[in-house]
Amino acid sequence: MMDLIPIKLSVTNCFLLKSGEKYVLIDTGYEEDWELFRAGMKKAGVNLSQISHIILTHHHDDHCGLLHDILRENDSIRIVMSSLCKDLIAKGENDRTHGGGLLNKRIAWLIRRKQFYLSVVLRKKVDKAKNLKFAPYTVRDCDILINGDTRLRDIGIPLDGKIIVTPGHTVDSISILFDDGDCLAGDAAASMLRFADTKNCVIFICDMDEYYKSWRKIIAAGAKRIYPAHGKPFSADRLKANLGKNMAKNLVPYRE
């Protein structure tokens, strides 16, 4: 892969990509991750003034929560997102109107303890009232909305790869696939909580059939290595091995 710098936040992996003289940031993490994000940027030796674009893989709070903090320091950054993200991100809350649920009963048990876990990791109390919520974002004229698979160079990012539409986790999920086979998958795949039988699925699935259809698309497009937003990178062969292993009938409706 070209120059790739991971930034590990409380639960989310963000990525910096060298793009000419600038950088592209993939996702941002929770609003509460600001200090971790700043520390990660400092460690990488990258200033916010050097970021030209932020690509959001979808609208969830752990992926877009820091948008406003970042734009306060550099409002020239162009935000790239699915056209389906536009209305969802403007609501300031993770969408739960398209069905689905938590992957299984073990995940449902664990997710009820999420706020406690975040408080321990961040060493500060995380407001339970903000769970699944974030500061609403209104798309600006300079931002870029993606309506289908799109080459990065076609939207002014000088890198050899493309954004591909990969719904299933959410309706607005997208991934970034590079010509060398590296794939920044957002939540279209994961490597987390393996003891809970996740089998490379993320913990919440909107549409299981669409989720696995996106896996097939990623595989068919030539992905070799997956860089998820949650967990460590892994071979795309694991997607092939785990395809269809989780079932929609086991999804557990999310409850506050």
- Number of DSSP helices? 8
N- to C-terminal distance = 40 Å
Biggest sheet character: 6 strands, mixed
Q: How many domains, as an integer?
A: 1
CATH topology description = Metallo-beta-lactamase, Chain A
Spans where pLDDT lies below 50 across 5 or more residues: none
Could you explain how this protein is built, in words?
The structure is a single chain. The strands form three sheets. A six-stranded mixed sheet has the order 1-2-3-4-5-7, with helices on one face. Strands 8-9-10-11-13-14 form a six-stranded mixed sheet. It is of the alpha/beta class. 42% of the residues are buried. It contains eight helices and 14 strands. The chain starts with a strand and ends in a 14-residue tail after the last helix. 25% of the residues lie in helices and 22% in strands. The protein has one domain: Ribonuclease Z/Hydroxyacylglutathione hydrolase-like (Metallo-beta-lactamase, Chain A, 4-Layer Sandwich). The mean pLDDT is 93. It has helices spanning 34-44, 61-64, 67-73, 85-91, 105-111, 114-122, 208-220, 237-242; strands spanning 4-8, 13-19, 22-26, 51-55, 78-82, 101-102, 144-146, 150-151, 161-165, 174-178, 182-186, 204-205, 225-228, 234-235. The longest helix has 13 residues, at 208-220.
